[in-house]
Write a structure and sequence with these properties.
Radius of gyration: 62 Å
Structural class: alpha+beta
Strand order of the largest sheet: 1-34-33-32-31
Length: 933
């Protein structure tokens, strides 16, 4: 158990190697979608990178990866960009790739022209350029291709070719057990057959002012001057002999990058001093570096045995990553007396500044460190266990009553410090040249992580769950009577409070507020608050450095403000490093000025340093990389990007990809686009490097995309113009045909209408004539009706006349009969005169004469009635006909009796007999029947 504990302490004290390393961007095979191994790397004029990969030619434009399978799907061993062509060498084949109209690469084989001369199982491991010639090197021969004559020259050493090299104006190669050769006039010329060069494989050759530097795989670096070969001493000679240098590269600043098989990458200065040693434990994906390449931005690309890494060697940001977990999350840092102190959740560590020495754990500080504060040539440590004074690599506890957040000098006494504790505020005092705990300030017991004190002993405290407090201390710093709680601004998670330019500032999600000393109220500072707009807020942490700069952190940037020398306005500076990459603890961000321009920023797994004087960035260009179109629910297809596009109406779904080919780990490019003809305003800035437009209407469109890198808008704007054609049924020809059809239709419709209206006119005339005829018939009918009515009225009149006449005759006969009877009664003497009168009366009341007169009148009124009734009933007698005529006039039996000179009863008998003769049914009335005839 003691042995294990001792080992742990040993590791904590001595094995935490602390070199700050340049940022490393890791790309695994699952990210770039190709094989694990990349054997050679190159770059074109547009900053696109190309990798000779196990699965083919791999292209990277800074945003997306594209894999092109090699010839016959073999491993590509070498790649070299020369002009606008990408030359590659693979298994029994070499040639070049050119970019098509659609932006994709197409392969053309050169070796097929000399296919018969290619050796069986031959692979091409290197490609070199010299003037107009391009050299393809296998392990057996070197094929020299003349780009002007398009002819080949082959150099075939007896013992084969181990490696070939290009140095200034010369091409070198090494053969087994023969030494180093140079190609002159198309032939091999021995440069040196020194035993060392015959024994050890050469990794690379570099030129110097007075000779060559020869990098061997297993025996370090040598200088070849004439026939003299001398060793060049470096800091890593021992490591190089055991590490097997497989690849090497001279960098633009004169440094050397050496890639090994088992020990990562060494970067040496031009004098052989070790600058960096990068291994898997220090950030690389793998310890085997198969290929090295420095791009135009001085990034070092490493093709590893398992992935691809990009090292931002010239980055102003360098990081220290604690993969062991011994250091932990960094919460505070300080430079004091030539030592760098790092306070973490594991304790306090230190090392000499400006050195690559190990971090040493300071005994007694195990646990959470909150702050480091220098005052009166003393380093104070705020710790979860209380307060420590740090001297070199030792710690002395001076307060353990509560955890300590921070420290502030007393404005009234230089030998006193006020510290913020878990339970409120307390006082430290220097007595006999020793700092000791003096007292707790009574009357306020809330946690005081952030507090500031004014000259008149007003203390402002920020508590993220309760808000801002203001309290007044007594002159002895013993107590406060009461305190005031601010309602505005509100409390907030990750809020903080600090003093900057003699003013107190408070920051939380709602903005940054400045204390008005007259009103003692907080007022919003619009300049500082602007950094939290557009959902940029992550933390309200405010930090003021020794140069009087105030630092703030947002989602996509680190900001710092400094006072202007010519005005009272603050000058804003933006560092385009997003919080997602800095890996800081939100709400506990910390930044410390460790030199004039260098700052240390703590992270959850170490820290990184930032030199603000080196924050200069190249002006890149934005490119449209490829354009894809598709029909609805169909697969995409690439289209040309060099000329104006023309797409069918149903190919109106378009995807455009674009990029800024830069490879900085901490800075992301942002893009903004505009599609003229579809939208009026530029889009919002976004890191997304693709956009899709669906169901575009027919018309002409111009797509524009611009980029922002390091918060600076790049100068160029990439433009692509395309046309979505109208469907065939909306083309000009179709419209012309439609016009002709419309004319024809109009003609025929007009003709049809004319025919229709002519027919309607004729029909209307016919209908009018028919109506006239009908009207005439109606008029005739009306006239006939009037005539009939007149006739009926005449008949009625005659019937009335006849009835009146009949009644008159009836009355006359009754009168005569009455007179006759009276005369008979008075004819007692039988006077002849009376008899004569009676005889005259008898003559005048004869029925025959009355009937005759009546018959003539009745026939005149109701023609042929007597004939019809006679025809219908032939058995009727004249008296029956007479009775029918009287009944036709609707006369009653009483009115008929005098006509027959009989009684009423006799009339009834006649009527009965008449029914019998007519054979009428019982339910049929006699009068109704006669009237109906």
């Amino acid at each position: 158990m003691k042995t294990k504990l001792s080992t742990l302490l040993f590791l904590m004290n001595f094995l935490l190697f602390s070199q700050e390393l340049p940022p490393i961007v890791k790309y695994s095979s699952s990210v770039y979608g190709a094989g694990n191994q990349s054997w050679m790397i190159s770059q074109d004029d547009e900053n696109y990178l190309y990798f000779a990969n196990n699965d083919g030619l791999l292209e990277y434009n800074g945003t997306s990866w594209q894999l092109y399978p090699g010839p016959n799907e073999t491993i590509i061993r070498s790649v070299k960009v020369i002009g606008n062509k990408v030359y590659t060498g693979s298994y029994m084949n070499f040639g070049y790739w050119t970019r098509n109209e659609n932006g994709k690469l197409k392969y053309t084989s050169l070796s097929d022209k000399i296919k018969s001369k290619i050796l069986d199982d031959e692979q091409f491991w290197n490609i070199l350029k010299y003037d107009q010639w391009i050299l393809f090197q296998s392990l057996n021969r070197i094929y020299i291709y003349d780009t002007k004559t398009r002819k080949f020259n082959i150099i075939a050493p007896k013992n084969g070719v181990i490696k070939s090299f290009s140095a200034k104006n010369a091409i070198y190669f090494q053969t087994i057990k023969e030494g180093l050769f140079e190609i002159e006039s198309g032939r091999a010329k021995l440069v040196s057959d020194n035993p060392i060069l015959k024994k050890f494989t050469i990794a690379n050759v570099f030129t110097t002012d007075d000779g060559l530097l020869v990098q061997t795989q297993l025996d370090g670096i040598y200088k070849l001057a004439g026939n003299s070969l001398t060793r060049v001493a470096t800091d890593v000679d021992a490591e190089l002999k055991s590490s097997f240098v497989y690849s090497s590269q001279r960098l633009q600043d004169g440094s050397f990058a050496l890639g090994t098989v088992s020990n990562g990458v060494f970067i040496l200065s031009d004098s052989g001093k070790l600058k960096y040693h990068l291994t898997q434990s220090k950030g690389l994906s793998n310890n085997t570096a198969l290929s090295l390449f420095e791009d135009k931005d001085q990034n070092l690309w490493v093709g590893l045995d398992n992935g691809i890494n990009c090292i931002n060697i010239q980055s102003p940001v360098h990081s220290f990553t604690d993969d062991t977990g011994v250091l932990g999350t960094v919460y505070a840092s300080a430079v004091f007396n030539g030592m760098l102190y790092i306070g973490t959740n594991q304790g306090l560590f230190c090392k000499p500044t400006q050195s690559n020495a190990e971090f040493k754990f300071i005994n007694g500080t195990k646990g959470q460190v909150w702050s480091l504060f220098t005052y009166d040539n003393t380093l104070f440590c705020g710790h979860d266990s209380g307060t420590f004074i740090i001297t070199n690599d030792s710690a002395r506890s001076i307060f353990s009553g509560s955890g300590t957040w921070k420290f502030e000098p007393s404005p009234t006494n230089k030998i006193q410090l006020i510290q913020g504790n878990y339970y409120g505020l307390s006082v430290l005092e220097k007595v006999n040249n020793q700092w000791i705990f003096k007292n707790k300030i009574q009357g306020f017991d809330y946690s005081s992580r952030y507090f500031e004190i004014t000259k008149n002993l007003d203390v402002y405290i920020s508590h993220e769950y309760k808000g801002i407090f203001r309290l007044k201390l007594d002159k002895a710093l013993l107590k406060t009577h009461d305190f005031y709680t601010y309602k505005s601004p509100e409390k907030g998670i990750s809020a903080s409070l600090t003093t900057f330019n003699n003013s107190i500032y408070y920051a939380y999600k709602g903005g940054i507020f400045k204390l008005n000393p007259k009103t003692r109220q907080f007022e919003k500072d619009t300049v500082l608050s602007s950094i939290f707009e557009k959902d940029e807020y992550t933390s309200g942490k405010l930090i003021v450095d020794h140069s009087n700069k105030i630092w703030l952190f947002s989602k996509n940037y680190i900001h710092y403000f400094s006072a202007s020398k010519l005005s009272n306005q603050l000058k804003q500076n933006i560092i385009p490093i997003p919080s997602s990459l800095t890996n800081s603890m939100l709400g506990y961000e910390n930044i410390t000025q460790i030199s004039k321009s260098t700052y240390l920023i703590g992270t959850t797994d170490g820290y990184y340093t930032l030199n603000i004087d080196d924050l200069s960035f190249k002006n890149y260009d934005v490119f449209i990389t490829d354009i894809l179109i598709n029909k609805q629910n169909e697969t995409f297809k690439n289209v040309g990007i060099q000329s104006e596009g023309s797409f069918d109406s149903d190919e109106n779904n378009i995807t455009l990809n674009y990029t800024v080919p830069e490879y900085n780990k901490y800075i992301n490019s942002e893009y903004q686009y505009l599609l003229e003809g579809f939208q009026d305003d530029w889009s919002e800035w976004s890191t997304k490097a693709t956009v899709n437009f669906k169901n575009l209407s027919p018309g002409k469109y111009t797509f524009r995309v611009r980029a922002k890198y390091a918060n600076t808008i790049l100068q160029n704007t990439a433009v692509y113009t395309f046309v979505v054609l109208k469907p065939w049924y909306l083309t000009n020809l179709a419209c012309f045909v439609y016009f002709l059809l419309i004319l024809a239709m109009a003609y025929f419709i007009n003709k049809a209408y004319r025919n229709y209206y002519q027919k309607q006119k004729e029909k209307l005339i016919e209908e009018n004539n028919l109506l006239l005829e009908i009207q005439e018939l109606e008029n005739e009918q009306q006239l006939m009706k009037l005539r009939n009515e007149q006739l009926s009225q005449d008949v009625d009149n005659k019937n009335r006349e006849l009835a009146v006449s009949t009644m008159s005759l009836n009355s006359k006969n009754e009168l005569l009969a009455f007179i006759k009877e009276d005369l008979k009664k008075t004819s007692q003497n039988d006077s002849s005169n009376i008899k004569s009168v009676i005889s005259t009366i008898n003559k005048n009341i004869t029925e025959e004469d009355s009937w005759k007169i009546f018959k003539e009148a009745f026939d005149s009124a109701d023609k042929d009635f007597l004939k019809r009734i006679k025809q219908m009933h032939p058995a009727l007698t004249p008296n029956d006909l007479r009775l029918c005529a009287y009944l036709r006039l609707n006369l009653s039996s009483k009115e008929i009796a005098p006509m027959f000179n009989i009684s009423v009863r006799s009339v009834e008998i006649k009527r009965y007999r008449l029914r019998k003769k007519m054979d009428l049914q019982h339910e049929i009335g006699l009068v109704e029947y006669i009237l109906a005839v």
